[in-house]
Design goal:
The protein is mainly α. It is built from 18 helices and no strands. It has one domain. It is about 65% helix and about 0% strand.
Length: about 325
Amino acid sequence: MFAIKPYPAQELIVPRRWTGIRKRMLGISVEEVTFKRRGFADDGRGAMARLEHVGRVFLHGYHAALDDDGPEVLAFNLDRIEHGFSGFAYEGAAMGLTLLDQLSLRKRNRLLTFLHGAGSKHTYMVHVGVGWAIARLPWLRRNFNRAMDHLDPLLRWLAVDGSGFSDFYFRSQSFLRNPRRLNRLQGYFAHAYAQGVGRSIWFVTGANADRVASTISLLPDQLHADLWSGAGLACAMAGGSDSRSVERLKTAAGVFTPALAQGAAFAAKARQRADNPMAHTEVVCQIFCGLSAVEAAQLTDAMLKNLPADGEIPAYEIWRQRIQSHFSRELGQL
């Protein structure tokens, strides 16, 4: 149902001499994204199959990037993934390219070449993928500003989000035993990081609305809006839930429903830019936002008008707040 399309024999790219070494050093086993290996919840609703597939597609993109055959060949390989899942492959590829850049003595422009070229249609996912690499490299983790300074000034916070997703995805139990770990980052970094944690919670809980709510309740109160926003984005982007469960998640969000809706709108915009709409994104946007996926994406664009430069509050957060305020008015929560 979710099989990754194999490459025809005549289209296989011959690995360069260092590809095998890179993959032995940096490769990630597909077992690492299984629910069994991660200890994620599965209640038999089919969410596991879908979310594990997202993980496999991510790793497909990651390992394709490690071949280091250039951006055009990489994009060709990534676009062989079924259309609705290709964004996750681009996310994985961004992680791989960032690692190669950081570990290379000379060639260090792979990520930016890809981001400004073949990967531009998936710019949101590429920025998130950079965060996965940040999570694995101590010298980047210690200095988020330096790690982000070459990225889009508005979307660079998605790299912090990606780092939060990666950390919680691989170490969720450690976070739940010590929720104060989320307080280690200061300022807006903590909020952007928590948005990624919220996305990860969708996977960790097996896309179960009640478990999403109970998990968020265990984490610091001041980050709940960010966590709900991330959960809304993952629900709309990755799927794994039927309409009844989506309704249940909206109810569980309570006063954080505008944050949930904003996350779904971001997912709609990412899919619109990539031109890979999915039926589940449409359903989620209609339930969370009261809008079609196209309308939700257009709303995110409208809220960019006259966006101020970064100040004490980053422009990215002002953008998010504008979208959430819109949904607060529409949902009667102001």
